[in-house]
Design a protein that fits this description.
By secondary structure, the protein is an alpha/beta fold. The chain has a single domain, classed as TIM Barrel (Alpha-Beta Barrel), CATH 3.20.20.70. The protein has an 8-stranded parallel beta barrel, surrounded by 6 helices. Strand 7, helix 11 and strand 8 form a beta-alpha-beta unit. Helix 5 packs across helix 7.
């Protein structure tokens, strides 16, 4: 049976001192959670949070990573820099990186392969825009993102990848795909993994849902057959909300 995986993406929020205080509260509140948990603070807060979550049941994640190991890439963060801070996972392909910063499927694929080669877990984000959904292109968009994003990733490495389906139109808008609609896309992604890899890889793949996940909708989402967790944005910045989400399957 697949393990539930709840991840909090703090995005561009919390200074180092704020992050430290919040992480201390999370460690205490989530110590009895049965789900796997990850939090991804901003880069400037990783060192502060690292010392707090070390040895706890919370995995430290980063929100992005360079496609290169080192060099003249002003503003980028290398995998070695993340590993030096005990970062264990990295979120790649988030829609905000794709849309705001122009990251392509090919660039995301480079990042995924580099992260995996360095021993980092990957949360690989996919999802369609509202225009694409209304045009009936959900499956074609998702197929392209998954196929190109995982190009060159072998099945052995795939066990270190979690896929996060985040319909772009639901991120930070308060709108959420119905549990049934979300599950349909998750089922399609799972069938695609079977097609690209194997039935075993498909069965093992953890697929999170993201997009305005809140305490009042998370249980109904996670009750679906193919939704294995949540990548949480805004609600991960509120202690009570994130606690309720993380403990919803206890």
């Amino acid at each position: 049976m697949r393990e539930y995986y709840i991840a909090g993406n703090w995005k561009m929020n919390n200074t180092a001192s704020q992050a430290r205080e919040f992480a201390e509260a999370l460690v205490d509140e989530l110590k009895d959670a049965s789900a796997k948990m990850m939090i991804a603070p901003p880069f400037t807060a990783l060192e502060s949070v690292s010392s707090i979550v070390r040895g706890t049941n919370i995995v430290l994640g980063a929100q992005n990573m360079s496609h290169k190991e080192y060099g003249a890439y002003t503003g980028d963060i290398s995998p070695e820099m993340l590993l030096d801070l005990d970062v264990a996972a990295v979120i790649l392909g988030h829609s905000e990186r794709r849309i705001v910063f122009g990251e392509t499927d090919e660039l995301i694929n480079e990042k995924i392969k580099l992260a995996l080669s360095k021993g980092l877990e990957v949360v690989f984000c996919i999802g369609e825009t509202l225009d694409e959904r209304e045009a009936g292109k959900v499956e074609s968009v998702v197929r392209t993102q998954v196929t190109k994003g995982l190009s060159g990733v072998d099945e052995g490495s795939l066990k270190h990848v979690t896929i996060a389906y985040e319909p772009v139109w639901a991120i930070g808008t308060g709108r959420t795909a119905t549990p049934e609609d979300a599950n349909n896309v998750h089922q399609f992604v799972r069938s695609l993994i079977k097609e690209l890899y194997s039935a075993d890889a498909s069965d093992r793949m953890v697929i999170q849902y993201g997009g305005s996940v809140k305490p009042d909708n998370v249980k109904e989402l996670l009750d679906q057959s193919d939704i294995d967790g949540a990548l949480v944005g805004g609600a991960s910045l509120d202690l009570e909300s994130f606690r309720a989400i993380a403990l919803c399957k206890n």
